[in-house]
Amino acid sequence: MKTHAIPLILALSLASGSALAHGEPPQAVHGGLVQEAQELWLELVVKDTDVTVYILDEMRKPVPAAQVSGTATVLVGGKSYKVALSPAGANSVQGKLPVAATGQVVATVSLKVGGKAASARFTNKA
Q1: In total, how many domains does the chain have?
Q2: Measured between alpha carbons, how far is 74 from 52 in angstroms, rounded to an integer?
Q3: What are the pLDDT tens digits along the chain (126 aa)?
Q4: Whole-number Å distance between alpha carbons of 88 and 78
Q5: CB count in 10 Å sphere of residue 118
Q6: SS3 call for 22
Q7: Beta partners for 73?
Q8: Which residue of 17, 48, 80, 124 is most buried, as measured by CB atoms within 10 A?
Q9: Strand (E) positions, 1-124?
Q10: Residue 107's domain spans which residues?
Q11: Could you tell me how far CA 13 lies from the centroid of its own chain?
């Protein structure tokens, strides 16, 4: 009976490790908001008219920006603006808002990373 318990214990320990793979969100290195998005971590930084998204994989390693495309829909002053995002740095994509963001920022980021879809919603109360 004890020999049957070993595979069960091993399976449970592996399952719990993979369930906790993401754990706590990484620190917002660029001063933005961090959200999980389908096995990725996204950090959104909205400053004036600049919208920047930094992308990390589940192991918190930078994802090359050349593999990333997408959009951000940002609510500013009650109006919604769709911003095309294009590679801007080693692991970031960026776009421009037509108006400067002030106060509360609400945004939805939709990305294609290496052909896979990832999305996240961000809210910052200023």
Answers
A1: 1
A2: 12
A3: 444 444 434 343 444 333 334 567 778 888 899 999 999 999 999 999 999 999 999 899 999 999 999 999 999 888 999 999 999 989 999 999 999 998 888 999 999 998 899 999 999 865
A4: 28
A5: 20
A6: coil
A7: 82, 108
A8: 124
A9: 33-37, 40-57, 68-76, 79-87, 92-101, 105-113, 116-124
A10: 33-123
A11: 28
Q: Round the CA-based radius of gyration of the chain to a whole number and report it.
A: 18
Q: Are 67 and 80 in contact (CB under 8 A)?
A: no
Q: How many residues does the chain have?
A: 126
Residue 9 falls inside a structural domain: no
Q: Which amino acid is at 102?
A: T
Residue in the structure block whose two tokens are 């990333």: 68
Q: How far apart are CA 114 and CA 29, in angstroms?
A: 23
